[in-house]
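Researcher: Next sequence.
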Amino acid sequence: MHILIAIVGIVAAAAFWWYRIQYMGKAAGEVADAIGHVRGNIRRNAMRKKSAISPVTAIDDPVVAAATVILAIAAEDALISDELEERLRLEIATIAGSDRQVDEAVVYAKWATNQVADVPIVIDKAAALLKDKLSEHEKEQLIGMVQSVTLREDRHHMFDRRIELLRRKLGLIVRD
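Model: Next structure:
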């Protein structure tokens, strides 16, 4: 009888440890899955950031870059109204070579600002192109265009900081 109890005890111990090993294997698999999900999320976020930046980095025309940065600053935290779009068209018409170029610049600016949610990224990327292509006078003119497109009562709480950032990125003296 004692041999039978010993065999049952050994089988029970083996079954217990087999179950524990199976349980630890499942837990390790779940940890590996969680790590895979985290790595996937990190990769997706990196890809999302790259794709968010790409509409602005693809700009090679200073008129389109100016329209994009003006609209991004003016429409931050707001919808692009018809009045805002019309003011943008009037300002861009002063620097564009044709009505077709105005239309292309405004359409691209609207699309790009809808694609990129982070205005400092738009300012950074557009200013990188504009800094070398514009004279000091044209840079000041761009700042004036942003201010005239955005009515004083429509300016958001970050407007002055965005203007200051744009001035800094364009290499202009930041006013106090």
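Model: The longest helix spans residues 2-57. The chain has a mean pLDDT of 85.
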